[in-house]
Write a structure and sequence with these properties.
about 150 residues, alpha+beta, Aminopeptidase, about 25% strand
């Protein structure tokens, strides 16, 4: 059975391992950076201190096999209701196609509803077609063009 919970500091190394499976390319700012364990602990503490930022993990048989970030964004439009952003959804390669990603997405969708959000969004690389099928299976629709600038 998969358990979804807030990440702890002890989860940082495994989360970073999972992120290596997710990263498609690096920005100029990231090139050559070698954050120390203290850097990661500092950022983790910042995440934990922000009540609108949830770093979650999926645990199976005592091991972290997936992770996702949920951000709740305050908003003056849409009758002053917040919206939610999903980031860094990743499931370990050997645990994919077993429902872990779907459980993580369903969890963050439910959390966004609990928080009174009027919508939830995520961005995905155009090449990640399997991921797109997963998002659609949970109810996400391709509804906009995404634009970004990497630094």
């Amino acid at each position: 059975m998969v358990n979804i919970r807030l990440a702890t500091e002890e989860d940082i190394p495994r989360i970073l391992d999972l992120y290596h499976e997710l990263t498609i390319s690096l920005s100029q700012v990231e090139m050559g950076r070698r954050p120390s364990p203290d850097d990661y602990r500092r950022v983790f503490a910042e995440i934990c201190a922000d009540p609108r930022h949830e770093l979650l993990v999926a645990e199976y048989e005592g091991q972290v096999v997936g992770t996702v970030v949920l951000l709740i964004v305050p908003n003056l439009s849409h009758s002053a209701t917040p919206w939610a952003l999903v980031e860094n959804l990743i499931v370990a390669q050997k645990h994919r196609r077993r429902g872990v990603g779907k459980l993580l997405l369903e969890y963050v969708v439910a959390r966004a509803k609990e928080k009174g959000c009027h919508r939830i969004e995520l961005c995905s690389d155009k090449r990640r077609r399997e991921a797109h099928r997963l998002y659609r299976s949970v109810g996400f629709e391709a509804s906009a063009y995404g634009f970004r600038i990497y630094f």
